[in-house]
Request: fold
Amino acid sequence: MPKIENPLLISLYSYYVEKILAETESIEEANQRLRDLGREIGEQVYLNTEIVEKTKDNVTTREDVAKLIEIVYRVLFDKKPKDVDMKTARGSVRITDDQCVWCQEVNLEGMRGFGYCEVFSGILESILEFKGVDAKVFQELSQATGADTCVWNVRLV
Amino acid sequence: MTKVGRPFVSFAFPDELFPRVKDSINLYKSDLRLMTIDTDRGLVVLSPVDNNWILTVLYVPELQLGLAIAKTKNVLRLLEGIELPPPPEEFEESVESNLQVLESIAINAASVESTEPTDAPLTPTVEVATPPVKEPETTPEPAADLLPPDSFNVQPGTIPERGPQYASALSLDSELYKEMKNLYRNFGFDVLMLVDGDISVEKIADSMFQPNNRVIDLLKWGASKGIISVPQITAEEQAAADTKTSLGRYVKCPRFEGDTSKVEKDDQDIIRLCDGSRTTEQIAESLKVPLPKVVQTVAKYRKHGLKLIGKTL
Reply:
């Protein structure tokens, strides 16, 4: 077993995932509940970290968004995502992480479409909102369900 | 019919087919195992019951060959362990009095297991179908604690088994048979004939070209009457069914993917059950060990290739 980073976070998060899965009726609903959880956590994150000081007051361009995402990564996980792609798709930024913190050592079978790490979508969405950016974030791929990397799509509205 | 192809008791088996059946029997004599003859009236399946008797059944032409054979085999299985006396020296072919001889045998043999007259041809309507039983009374043990159909857990992969009332449900003069016929017409009979403890619901449905749900519906009813036995819904599953529809209960099942030779002797029993199909609770229950002991062992082997597989059931 590779060493799990931040085991307390992982233990807390898997507890919430299981709770939500037990209370929801569909994969989509569970994904949404995890994003909602992330939005609530996002507020705490924004209040408790130096993200506010490290980022520009006015985040407007996709470059600004990409920069903000890297700062969130630095502050929360002390690392960089594998890739933040803002060129391929107009109006959206795609984050790729092959060492995602949220789904370490999680193996799901037969749960296609379930975004195990959707909580991060919510966190990001909420932080972006505090920075005045209207965006929808959702997870496209998760290593928990067998993908090589975790991918989130930040769609700028 | 007898081993030389003389009809002893016949239920609406068309007379004109007897010569053909007899010829076929003579052709194979002692080598006869299971034979099918394609006739213009349908498919005839011949199968020797013992050294003296051959069961001859005519199925409707639309019935699939595999299904016809499966049904015949099931009748044979019902006959297992029942000794039939040899045919009398002299008898008139296919007369009613022969039936009485059989009935007396049937009454003697009728305990839980049903008895089959030696010759039970099926009319082209499937209706008088392979009557396996000539039991004068309904089965002895009435199932005491009958549960409603919905308390049984029948999935496409479930393998139904015969229950205490199985024989009774297949005897044409029983109340149970009448009830089944009322509710499901001949479909009930046809499905029950395929229940043998080996074949899954899905396969039964497939071989009958019927939707799984229809078979499941019938089997749940059958289970509620004690005709077949299938697993019951556990309290947990019931709770899960109440709270959610499409998303099943989320469970985590340990699966060991490491080197089994490195597992300590004391832990082997637990690790052996870590195949990704059981939860830690289920492992604890089946080994009758406390849950903390299982969790302890599972945790110990995490670094030796033990994964936790999450899934919804």
In short: The longest strand of chain A covers residues 135-141. The radius of gyration of chain A is 15 Å.
